[in-house]
Every structure is written in C-alpha cells, then in structure tokens.
C-alpha cells in the first residue's frame, strides 16, 4: 500500500492492486469507456447536425469521470506549464460574474468555459499514451479532409459547376457557418502541414499533403481575408523553424497569388459577370471600415468598465447596447448588433482588462510550451504536433482579432489541440497531480 507521502503516480498504481478497492475490477473498463466517449464526442464537434452528441455526450462523460475518480480515489488533473495563466484567466472571469449586467447569462457562459477546461484535462490524461494520441490525431485529420472536401463541393455547386445540393450564399460545409469554417481551417491546416513535412512514410505523407491541399483550397474559396492572413502567419512561423523552407515558401507564394486573384475577382466584379450568387466576406473596404467603427465604440466602453466589464459572454455586447437606445455612427453597417469582432476587445469589455491580460499570457505560455516541446523532443510525432499547434495558436490569435469565434464547439476543438500538444511534454512534467 502506498504511503501518504508518496506521489500521485505511486498512489494510483497501488490502489489498482488493493483487494476490494473496486479499481481492479472496473478501472480499465472505465478508462476504455471514457476514451471511447471522448473520441466520439471530439469527432462530432465540427458537425452542426451532431450537436446532440456534444450535449448528451458531455453528460455521459461527467458520469463516467465521476465513477473513475471514485474507483481510483483521485482526480485526473495533470500539471501543465499553462496552469497558472489558465487559473488567472478563469479566476478573473469568475470574479467578474457578480458584476455582470446580465449575471444569469454570464454564469451560463462561464459554465461553458469550465466545460472546455475540464475536457482539456480529460484529454490530457486519458489520451496520454502515444497510440491513443495517434488514433485521435488521424481521426481529426480525416474529419478535416471531409469538411474541406464538402466545402469545395459547395463552392462548385454555387458556381454552377455541380448540381446544387441546397441554396447557399457562402460555403459552410458541415459546420455552423462560413466564419466557423474558416476558423476551424485556420486551426487544422498547420497540423496537416506539419505532419506532411515530418512524415517519413510516403503513403502517409501523401495523405497529409492531400489534407493540407484540401484545407488551403477550401479556406481560399471562402474569400476570407482574415483567414488568409492567419494562414500566411502560420506558414511564416513554420518557415522560421523548419529547414525545408522551399516547400513552405512555395505555399506562401501560392497563397499570395490566390489573394491577388481574389482581389481581381472582386475588383472587376467577375462573380456578377458569371452569374454567381455567392456573397463575399472580408475583401471589401466597407467590411474593414465597419470593424474600425465597432472597435472604436468598444474601446470607449472598455474605458468605462476597465476592471470587471459588462459581463462575460459574446452576446453581452448586443444584450447591453442594442436595446440601450444609444445612437452610434453607422456609415457602413449598424454597430450595436454586430458584436465586437475581436476576441481581445470582447474579453476586455466583458470581463475587464485583467481578463484579457491573463488570456494573452495564457496564449503566450501555450506558444512557448509548444516551442520547447519542438526544440527538445526527439520524437518526430511530438515535433509535428508541437509545431502545428504552436503555429495554429498564432494563426488563431490573428483570426480571432477580426471575429470572436472562440466559443461553443470551436473553443472545445481549440482546447483539444492544446491538450494533444501539451501531452507531448516530458513525463516528469506531466505526472498526475497528487490525489486528495
């Protein structure tokens, strides 16, 4: 039997051998069940019509995690390099809830944040073995290929090159919308690209190359200027780390050429000439100027509520100001119903300036941790995950500067990738926290 002074790992192993403790009988089965539920839950996240899996799956997962903790008499939280900034961010957001304009709504959104963090630590613990991480990664890349391919098919249908499946103005694939799709692709493309660069086997490399090509093409066909800017930043980060710079430079040149083509399409109204009904977001001057108006309005409001904000949650901007009767300049589009269109301004307005400072600290620690794993790990698999996630976080920071989309299932997807990355750190830094 382990003594009270021993660490969590010794205690964990000893409990499994205790007669009558329950863990030897149901522990392995519980772990397999938790991994299975997590696997299905994660795969269903990008699919809008499978939201019922996300909702009901989380309840089932909570029950299974409760049984697991009771069987092993310990928790599954592991120490990570981001624990301190994560605690600071979550703590300050929680502190701001009583001061919110609509506390009930902000409390609901805070509960979603806690759900994301719980899933982060669950994936970190139950997918710690490399075989489980590989299976999850392959599934995630496979899902990204499916979503990208269907998005391309939607574009061809809108252009009249394929029979239309359903009436659409913009491509959205299986996701919740065009902005959701572009943000998702900004997260997944660098992972696919990193594995294409590091994979040694020809067949697997071709699969990763196909996933990268599908993702990039689908992102370009959304005509999202913010998405393309994020992609270029990600490629730039990868160029600074990878020796095979020729491939990455070629991808960058290709993206820039496609951006130029998109500008020409809009400049000369090619879509109207071809009779394409597709709407284009982000390339017009009005879109950027509209955001400047929103950001100017938001900054003024942040200065009125600098510490605890008006309430955590994306919809607070609309709930508080749209019905206030306040007159705002709207030279391009209405400001008040639009939201902040910037995650940093959104957090500062919702939960106060300390919250956004903690969030920036958190992102910085994630990037530094990914860089450390990339530089110190001898595993090609770990290097690829660390490089892809690290570049993806930087790309996401840029993408979210134009649309606050780190919400709902997208936020969960983000934390899944962070968990996979941090699970690559050395074993001595990733042991389970001591049970209580």
What does this structure look like?
This protein is mainly α. It is built from 17 helices and no strands. Helix content is 69%, strand content 0%. Helix 2 crosses helix 5 (103-126), helix 4 runs antiparallel to helix 15 (353-376) and helix 15 (353-376) packs antiparallel against helix 16 (380-399). The two termini are 16 Å apart. 42% of the residues are buried.
Instruction: Report, as a whole number of angstroms, the end-to-end distance.
Output: 16 Å
- Report the sheet-strand fraction: under 5%
Total strand segments: 0
Q: Largest sheet, if any?
A: none
Labels describing this entry:
single chain, 436 residues, mainly alpha, 17 helices, globular, disordered C terminus
Summarize the structure.
Mean pLDDT is 83; it is low at 1-22, 277-283 and 428-436.
SSE blueprint:
Layout: H1 8-15, H2 23-44, H3 51-72, H4 83-96, H5 103-126, H6 130-158, H7 178-198, H8 202-221, H9 225-241, H10 245-267, H11 270-274, H12 285-304, H13 316-321, H14 343-351, H15 353-376, H16 380-399, H17 408-422
Helix pairs in contact: 2-3, 2-5, 4-15, 5-17, 6-7, 6-8, 7-8, 7-9, 7-16, 7-17, 9-10, 9-16, 12-14, 14-15, 15-16, 16-17
